[in-house]
Design a protein that fits this description.
It contains 22 helices and no strands. Helices cover 60% and strands 0% of the residues. The chain folds into 4 domains: 3-99, Orthogonal Bundle (Death Domain, Fas), CATH 1.10.533; 103-163, no CATH class; 167-261, Death Domain, Fas (Orthogonal Bundle), CATH 1.10.533.10; 265-370, no CATH class. By secondary structure, it is an all-alpha fold.
Amino acid sequence: MKESEFYELLLRLSTAISKKSEKHVDMLRVLYTDLANSKTELEEAESAFGLFQLLIAPGTLKSTDISVLFETIELTGFRYLKEIIEKYETYPVDVKITRFSGHRQHVVALGRGFSVKDVQKISQLYRGNIVFPNQWKLIIDLETDVLTEDKMSTFLQCLKENEVNKDFNKLLLELSEAISKKDKKYVDLLRVLYTDFAIAKTDLEEAKCAFDLFQILIVAGALKQTDISVLFETIELTRLRYLKEIIEKYEAYPTVVKITRFSPHRQQLVALGRDLSVKHLQTVCQMYEIPVNISTNPWKVITFLENEDIISGGNLSLLLFNLKTVGSGEASTTKRQMLDKGSGMVSTSKRHKLEPGMYCVLNKTVCEIFKVY
């Protein structure tokens, strides 16, 4: 992109943002806090264009690399900016968040979920009678002492105790309690389902309940007070239908739920774990030397296989093929010899990675075995 086109793009984006809402400029101020070299200039910037200048100075934003703008749109939800960018450069199908820390993403996700009443309540809790024009001005003020990374958990606990986002948090708590009460394994199921949303794997591993996993969705911007559609998709994919009654106490459940937030591969993994028989689970554990302490929990087994890179990409299809062969008992001697030589079946250890191109398993075959689709 030429320099002239680059600055023209930034001006058009800035104009669109100001026209939409001045508080969106404050939102960017919060988002770019860790990227700006000067806090004074961050505070004094009067428009999005002024904030973009702060990204240009350290080389974060330049005519040859506008990826930070893609990340900005994904984290803020400013989809209306996408059309402007596409007139100058192709917008990627998948945008990876690499320039913003998990804490920064969490702060922005919190602000997006605050209502006017929430802002008033939080202001009274921490700043007495000071009136803030919007949630972003409040957050900027709180980040000086209260809303820091090491105090985030304390801040969230305070919001919970003072019923900020009351109905939203109440819904999440009710869902979480119902899931744990039904079966603790379902928490591991959600751990598998939400894997692609986690910024860090440790967040997934350390989550003790569904409520903790919902926080991962909130940070990723997939779940918020004004949009709980990811919960509808969760119920459809996991078949935890009893959760539907809980949601309907707070919001209407749609007649038709389209799956848009989960990749086909993620859906396949969930379907596999959901429909895996005891016999097939035992087979998998033998094939890949699964630790005994997790061998009876299909979701922990799947997590283990994912961490070992055994069922990534085309490897999943081969695993299904192997299970069908072992389970049917109808494989010919020749086919068994082929599998023993190179497929990664019983004769191999869990660290022997499966070769993606070794077999081509048609979706129809997969469906017949585990009804994945």
